[in-house]
Specification:
Strand 3, helix 4 and strand 4 form a beta-alpha-beta unit. By secondary structure, this protein is of the alpha/beta class. The longest helix is centred in the N-terminal third of the chain and has 15 residues. The chain has an eight-stranded parallel beta sheet, sandwiched between helices. Helix content is 46%, strand content 12%. Helix 2 packs across helix 3, helix 5 runs parallel beside helix 7 and helix 13 packs across helix 14.
């Protein structure tokens, strides 16, 4: 494994925000708000940022917008934390194109979701990720989220992919602790295992995961970064105390489909405008009070 891959592996840890893509009411990307969010996240201590992941509405950005948002992230972050660029697709050709653009933009790592909708076999997924890794020489992270993709990247397939040098990590968003622990035991010596499930992430770190790619840290970056920094130091009792101040948000921010509640929360905090793209909608009015109360409970609004 090259020094570059080893270096990025050492940086993929802690609390990592899967950042929303702020939009104006007409649905256009709000780059001023995005700059503000990025700076605020870093000032609050977040350890890395994901551009244009699921929470960033990657499914409804055009290829050009997708690439431009990644470029903007890299420029705004300016090396302060790693930038992980969401470049996955259910077309291998499209994923290679997006990953190529992420490399040209200067992203530190590509995040590649399992191919959704087409329902490929395990061998099909292996060949998909292998093809992207061979086509684009940059660090790459697998992303298994069967609740959204319908396909489930098996441990055996991940084990095979772990032997490819530039596949350096996996985001395990199954929410299944037993599976996560088994995965760490199987491949943790060859790739970084990160949780992609806020409710179970801290527990998974106890078993060797290196951190959490988080939705909650969109609104509570300080608490999440502190909790996971403590956990990585083995100070779990302290980590749990910090984590408990925002743990209720893990459920609250999924009161409707993500990122609808998160965008509403950030708007309520004065961070972004009200833009979101169909088929996502602005949070239903019936849930506004619940999110308001959740933010107050976490000390994020008065």
């Amino acid at each position: 494994m090259t020094d570059t891959y080893q270096e990025i592996k050492s940086k993929l840890k802690g609390a990592i925000t899967a950042l929303v893509t702020p939009m104006k009411p007409d649905g256009s990307v709000d780059y001023d708000a995005l700059a503000g969010l990025i700076d605020w996240q870093i000032d609050q201590g977040i350890h890395a940022l994901v551009a244009v992941g699921t929470t960033g509405e990657s499914a409804t950005l055009s290829m050009d917008e997708h690439t431009e948002v990644i470029r903007f992230f890299v420029k705004q972050v300016a090396g302060r934390v790693p930038v992980i660029a969401g470049t996955g697709a259910n077309s291998t050709h499209e994923a290679i194109a997006l990953t190529t653009q992420a490399k040209l933009a200067g992203a530190d790592c590509a995040l590649l979701v399992a191919p959704y909708y087409n329902k490929p076999t395990q061998e099909g997924m292996y060949q998909h990720f292998k093809a992207i890794a061979e086509a684009v020489d940059m660090p790459q992270m697998l992303y298994n989220v069967p609740g959204r993709t319908v396909v489930d990247l098996s441990e055996d397939t991940v084990n095979r992919l772990a032997d490819i040098d530039n596949i350096v990590a996996i985001k395990d968003a199954t929410g299944n602790l037993e599976r996560g622990i088994s995965l760490i035991r199987r491949v943790g010596d060859r790739m970084v295992v990160l949780s992609g499930d806020d409710p179970t992430a801290l527990e998974l770190v106890k078993h060797g995961a290196k951190g959490d790619i988080s939705v909650t840290s969109n609104v509570a970056p300080a608490a999440m970064s502190q909790a996971f920094a403590l956990a990585l130091q083995g100070r779990f009792d302290e980590a749990v105390k910090v984590h408990e101040t925002v743990a209720h948000l893990h459920k609250d921010l999924f009161i409707e489909s993500s990122p609808q509640p998160t965008k509403y929360a950030l708007h309520k905090m004065g961070k972004i405008d009200t833009g979101i793209r169909l088929p996502m909608l602005w949070l239903s009015e019936q849930y506004h009070a619940a999110i308001d109360n959740a933010l107050k409970q976490a000390g994020l609004i008065d």
